[in-house]
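Ticket #4471: structure output looks truncated?

Reporter: J.K.
Steps to reproduce: submitted the chain below (230 residues) through the standard prediction queue, then opened the result file.
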Amino acid sequence: MIFLIAAAIATAAPAAPAPSAPSSCANLVSANAFVCRALAAQKAGDNAGAASAFEQAALASSEKDAGTAHLWAAAGNMWIAADQPAKAAVALDKALALPGLEGAQRGEALLDRARAAEAQNDLTTARTKLNEAASSISGDPFYWYFSSALYIREQNSQAAQAAIGRALTLAPADPTILFEAGHVAQIAGDTVGARDYWQRAIARDPSGPIGKAAQEALRMLPAPLTVKTD
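Returned output as attached by the reporter:
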């Protein structure tokens, strides 16, 4: 989550500048320098490089410093973005074991830990971590979106419908949530509802990846029934 990365930057002492290129970062072995490199790598689209640099920043910091947990959490988030959930799980477990993550920050780290577990097909750990996060981030629509997707994998369509309903209440116009709502409706056998959600997702993201995915999903639905009258 961007929230975790922002927290990591804010707690790196002193605050690291937002670089335009890796060459603008000091060639030092310090938490500041590594955070600078992490931001540069992230800006360049190098998620794995950003994750590694955040880890180096954490290793260069004291475990007694509350900011160290934020650095590990940011590393975990970037490992997820890099499609390396095993590394994400290790980094996030370190973040959660240290002092420093409180309230919503801890909840977001638990949500990321659940995402890493789900990507490794460890659905039990994913649900456990998600349940732990509920008390602090139940107002986050992505929490319910992910919970719904996880319920689908757990073959609990009724719970998935309830969870996506909560997500829609919190973010009714979000195309990602609308797309998932269509998927949940389709699994429940409600092709009319699925079609409606996917059409709304397309309207919200006509040229983006979600809109294109919704268009493809619509093409796979059976044609709607029509009634002809003389």
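Triage note (M.O.): checked the attachment and the full token line is present. Confidence is low (pLDDT under 50) at residues 13-22.
Status: closed, working as intended.
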